[in-house]
Amino acid sequence: MQDKNNHIGRPPRITPFTDQPLYYITFNTHNRLSLLANEDIHARFINFASKAETKGAAIGRYVIMPDHIHLFLRCHHSLRIGDTIRLLKRSLSASIKHTLPHWQPGFFDHIIRQGESYHEKWLYVEQNPVRAELVETADAWPFQGQVVDLRM
What we know:
The protein has 4 helices and 5 strands. The protein is an alpha+beta fold and 152 residues long. It has a 5-stranded antiparallel beta sheet, with helices on both faces. Strand 2 (57-64) and strand 3 form a beta hairpin. The radius of gyration is 17 Å and the shape is globular. The termini are far apart.
């Protein structure tokens, strides 16, 4: 007999291996408008990340692209990642000189599990500006970095 909460072909919900999992997050601007890759947004992002750390949300490596942001996030178990991303979007909006809306609803999140490599995911993410032909080397992209060292 099939469990009512478990669909055929779909594994049961897997809980993280830790009470403070590491998330890979991506979120986009509304209609993928190029609003983000500038010094004002970058400075506001760093400021938000620094303050968030004192409240239990640690942002590790990140890349700010013209129309989306990739980041790695670890939150205290009492925090909801959705609330953290909502507050980050609100903070960044204060530096966007474009009519609302600024953001595509929601965000993509993926828990980095023990068998996955944070480093390998980062290597893929940091190449985004190169693949988009914005720079020749990843190191040349000015809107990236690491706020907190989030080792697995």
